[in-house]
Fold this protein.
Amino acid sequence: MPNCEVVAVFYPDLGTTCQVDRGDHVRAVGWLHPDHSFPTGPVPPGFSAALRAHAYDSWQPVLAMGPHFCEFCSHPAPGAGRAGGARNFWIPSTSVVYVAPELIVHYVEDHQYQPPEEFVAAVLACPPQKSDAFLEMLRPFGYTWRE
């Protein structure tokens, strides 16, 4: 059996680097780990639904090779699964692009993670993933894709 090392995935909120992107225009959000505290509190009405829509139907320029599981949840009972996700998603704004892991939905809904206000505003204002308007918002940041 191969020796697989588990690598902690943590990037500070609003940092310019995350597992799948980096640059002056990038802002990481929701890359949480138990060794680091995170803000908790309420989110505006409609935010969770908007976040879910972006996370679960996301534009995918980078594919993960497997899921990452929530490290805040205790080990599940037999037959029960731990929250996990393999997608990442981009939320463009006028000045930066936020990049979040799919697990951010679980963190917000089950662990009361309160993302930065500017990310919340960007999620609520962002057009649907993969729409023409969404892709047009990414263009100034140099993202390319096959048309």
The mean pLDDT is 89. Helices lie at 47-56, 104-111, 117-125, 132-138. The longest strand covers residues 88-92. The longest helix spans residues 47-56.
